[in-house]
Amino acid sequence: MRSYLLILGEREAVAWILRHQRMAFPARRRAEVGQLEAADELLIYTTRGCWHNPERDRGRVIGRAYATSPVRPLQAPVEIAGRVFESVCELDVRTLTPYLTGVELAPLVERLAAFPAKSSWSIRLRRPLLELPVGDAELLRGCLAGAESPADELVDGYLEAIKPVTGRGAVSG
Question: Judging by DSSP bridges, how do beta strands 129-132 and 60-67 pair with one another?
């Protein structure tokens, strides 16, 4: 079992994942996406811009999910917030923190081996998945433990709070 940060930069993508229990990936091939296997842990990370208010929001780990299938191509691409995705894996989203909360990542970067270049750490978040060394996953899991609840207790609140982005295209699929 590997652990990854599942990096989400758009609130509509968060809603889609929670609604469908799937993660969609763009056509661009990335090695870490091809390596994702059933039972791999995904620490769900939302970027500062995910909620469309980067002055207020911080990049946070908001929950945990597990892949329940390998990544496979879709027969028909799915569009989420104006972006097209051509492959998916099934997920089991197990925990979430309350909406707009979670474990802030920036204060932990100095302690995380996944970010060797501390001054430019955020560049590593421009991908859908970032594999985490065992110690990093343990640290994030430990920080998350006091803030997370079973996902089924919080999903409805997320879905009610997440509004579609006007003029950027509908979520389909």
Answer: unpaired
Distances (CA, A) of 40 to 5, 67, 101: 11, 5, 24
Q: How many CB atoms are located within 10 Å of the residue 30 CB?
A: 13
**Model pLDDT for residues 67-99, shown as the tens digit of each residue:** 999 999 999 999 998 899 999 999 999 999 999
Handedness of CA 63, 67, 71, 72 (dihedral sign): negative
CA-closest candidate to residue 96, choices 15, 1, 3, 2: 15
| 99 alpha carbon, distance to own chain's centre | 14
Cα angle vertex 86, ends 62, 71, to 5°? Answer: 65
Residue 144, SS3 per DSSP = helix
> Which residue has tokens 């909620």?
51
User: Residue 173: is its pLDDT beyond 80?
Assistant: no
Q: Which of 78, 96, 82, 77 is nearest to 151 (CA)?
A: 96
pLDDT over 80 at 133, yes or no: yes
Q: Which of 48, 9, 51 is nearest to 26 (CA)?
A: 9
Q: Can you tell me the mean pLDDT for 49-77?
A: 94
- Nearest residue to 94 (alpha-carbon basis) of 26, 161, 144, 34: 144
CA atoms within 13 A on the CB side of 140: 31
